[in-house]
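Hi P.,

Sorry for the delay on this. The queue was packed all week, but I finally got your sequence through. Input first:
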Amino acid sequence: MSTPTRVWISESAHQLLRDELTELRALLARDIDGSTGDEENLAAIQRARQVRIQQIHDLLVYAVVGEDPPDDGIAEPGMVLTVRYDEAGDTETFLLGVRGTEQNGMEIYSLQSPLGAAIAGARPGEQRVYRTPGGSSISVTLLAAVPYGLHRHS
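Then the structure:
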């Protein structure tokens, strides 16, 4: 059995997940206590809530909360990355982290996403290529990697 991966999330994302977990548990308890109406529909709703409760629980158990990675310019979870899409010349800034923990409208890519997997471990100036779900290859260059905590305040 492999050891679960620690995941980086911000303090505000941690609190949002805890609040969502509390709300989902309350809704689940209310559904069980006041069960009336369409039983099949209610069962589907309860299953969906239980799945989300488990997802949040797993995230919270393995979360590294608010601890910024070192300010060493290496692309890793907890870093705000700026990349250039080489063919188009466009740039994008995003947080490498956990999807579902959106921060102030900033786009988040996980390590499991094609871009996140390709760019992880890169240093500024390094070019990486990733394949989109549609099969296209896209070349990106890491321009900057800054810890989330430092990026917020800049």
